[in-house]
Amino acid sequence: MRALMLPRFQGPSARRLVALGLLIGLLMGALFFVGWWQRHVAKKKLEAAATEAAESLPRVKLAQAVAVEGGRTLTLPGSLVAVRQALVNARATGYVAAWRVDIGDRVHAGDVLAELDTPELNQQLAQARAAANQKTAADQQAVANRDYAITTAAREDALLAEGIHTKQQNDQSHAQVKVDQANVNAAEADIAAAQATVHQLEQLVSFGHVVAPFDGRITQRNIEIGTLVVAGSGQPMFRIEATDPVRVFVQVPQAFALSVKEGEAANVMVRQVPGRNFEGKVTRTAGTLDPTSRTLAVEIDVPNPTGELLGGMFAQVSLTGTLAHRVVRVPSSAVITDARGVHVAVVDASGIVHLVAAQRGLDNGTTIDIVEGLTGDERVIASPGADVSEGMRVAPP
Questions:
Q1: What pLDDT is recorded for position 190?
Q2: Domain 55-71+325-397: which topology?
Q3: Between residues 43 and 52, which one has the greater pLDDT?
Q4: Nearest one of 89, 369, 112, 380 to 256, comparing CA atoms
Q5: Are 269 and 315 in contact (CB under 8 A)?
Q6: Hey, where are the domains in the chain?
Q7: I need a surface site. Which of 91, 281, 334, 377 has the fewest CB within 10 A?
């Protein structure tokens, strides 16, 4: 059997086909290289741009949030207010003759704060007393007429019995007694009305001595000697506050709301009085949560006999409460407290900052427990600056 032989390309035609194949192969290789090179150059540019952008992003120090078992102490911001406060207004119209106290003075209930000169009221009182005297004189006259009518009627009875006077004359005498008695009753009523007017004006004149309604401290004075004050104008003369005890208002988050009871102890700390813990007690709770903030309003009374605590101060209040879930511990410097509330700056894997609303718990000094807002697997900015904002980019962790 003869071997199968492949045809051979010979001559000029074969050489041209081989050259054409080589040329096509070189062309395809060149096109492939050009495409690969363009992608390679674009990738390098992107990497360089990303590197440059990463190098230009701010670098921050990150800390890992750690979930721990929740404690029983809750630290909350609170506001100090006076347990009693009042605006002292004028009850009588007049001019300020003298003021006896100034801001900062301690007063007791009944102390005279200011004296008013009330010439119009004094004149009205004098007229009312004169009218009362006039009514008294009229009453005396009515009594005299009644007594005379009674005597006349008695004489008419005797004459009628002897047949000297008629029955009609006797009836007229007794009718006159009733008329005169009615006049006496009317005169006595006029006297009572006149005396009531006198008492009213005497009371108004007595309001010229402005007195303190309770023990406290004067925190505002709005008058000077000669100032005209008008009763019912709404312009207060003084402001008085009682700050022993002082009252603290706090908002307890929902997680602790059920564990706060009336009568429980509370510690109040004020930054302006370092090293002091003021002991107080929970006096009342609102009994319902605010639907907007989901917090419970709580009032705490703190004894303040020396007046160290002033109304309007900001305080930190520590309460004992039971928390049903774990808390997340972060560095104390990581917590941002401003007008927007309490937040923690969390950085995700791509370097984007998210401001997460948080609820502070126990302050351990270098760390603080977050009772709401974090889960424990976040990375937070350890010391966020004032320029940290939602959505900003930082160098990826």
A1: 85
A2: 2.40.420
A3: 43
A4: 369
A5: yes
A6: 55-71+325-397, 119-206
A7: 377
Per-residue tokens: 62: 């990150």
Tell me the one-letter amino acid at 13: S
Torsion of CA 186, 188, 192, 193, to 10 degrees: 30
The sign one gets for the Cα dihedral 110, 114, 115, 121 is: negative
Beta strands in 311-366 (DSSP E): 314-320, 327-331, 335-338, 341-347, 353-357, 359-363
Entry field: residues in the chain:
397
CA dihedral 153, 154, 159, 162 (to 10 degrees): 140
In the β-sheet with 94-99, what is the strand arrangement from edge to edge? 209-211, 112-117, 94-99, 228-229
For 149-180, the pLDDT digits (tens) are 788 877 777 777 777 767 777 777 778 878 87
Q: Are 81 and 219 in contact (CB under 8 A)?
A: no
Mean pLDDT of 17-28: 78
- The span from the CA of 107 to the CA of 212, in Å, is 7
- What's the rounded Cα separation, in Å, for the pair 69 and 328? 8
Cross-strand pairs, 338: 341
Tell whether the torsion through CA atoms of 295, 296, 299 and 300 is positive or negative: negative
User: DSSP per residue over 345-393, as a string?
Assistant: EEE-TTSBEEEEE-EEEEE-SSEEEEEES--S--EEESS--TT--TT-B
Distance, in Å, from the CA atom of 49 to the CA atom of 119, rounded to the nearest integer, reads 88
For residues 185-206, give the mean pLDDT.
Answer: 86
pTM: 0.53
Tens-place pLDDT, residues 54-67: 556 778 888 998 88
pLDDT digits (tens, 9 = 90+) for 62-89: 899 888 765 567 788 899 998 888 999 8
For residue 303, count other CB atoms closer than 10 A to its CB.
13
* Longest CA–CA separation in the chain, Å: 196
Instruction: Give the single-character DSSP code of 25.
Output: H
The SS3 call for residue 1 is coil
